[in-house]
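Forum > Structural Biology > Help requests

Title: Can anyone predict the 3D structure of RNA polymerase sigma24 factor?

Hi all, first post here. I have the sequence for RNA polymerase sigma24 factor but no way to get a structure on my laptop. I'd be grateful if someone could post the C-alpha cells.
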Amino acid sequence: MSAAAISPKLFEAARLGDPHAIASLLETAQPDIRRYARATCRSSADAEDATQEALWILFRHVGTIRSLLAFSAWLFSVVRRECLRLARRAGLAPAVDESEVEAALLLRPEADLRLDVAAAFEALPPHYRDVALMRDVKEMTIDEIAMALGATRQTVKARLHRARALMREYLTR
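Reply #1:
Sure, ran it for you. C-alpha cells for RNA polymerase sigma24 factor below:
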C-alpha cells in the first residue's frame, strides 16, 4: 500500500480512535490488502479470508501503529502472516529449507524463471517494487535510491530486504 494514498491527517485521526477516520482508512486500504492477499495466498478463498482478517486486525490495532511510514509494512506483514497461517492450517506450508528452494529455482528453464521473476516484481507493493527495481535492475546504490525517493538509508534498506523476501516467497509458492 502506498502511504501517499492515505493522508497523514486521516491516519492520525484513525490512530487516535476517530470512528469515521478508521472507516475511511479501512475503505482506502482494502483494495491494496485484497490485491496483496491474492498475490500471496494459495487460493482465492484464502485471499478473501486473509483480507477480512487483516481488516479486522487493522481495525483493532490501528492505534498501536507508530507512524504512517510504518503502516504499509505492518499491514502487508499482517496479510502475509494470515496467508501463511491459512496455508499451514491446510497442510500446505511453504518449504523452509533455503538450499532446496534455491536448487528448485535453478532447475527451472531460464525463460520460465525470467517470467516468474517479472511476475514477482509485479506482485510487489509499489513502494517495495520501486526500491527493488532501482537496486537490482538499475543497480543504484542505497544512497542514490534514498535521495531519489526522499527516504532515509534505513528505510531503503528495510524496503529492499522486505521486497526480496516477498519475491523469494512468491517464487517458491
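Residues 19-40 form the longest helix (22 residues). The CA atoms of residues 145 and 151 lie 8 Å apart.
Shout if anything looks off.
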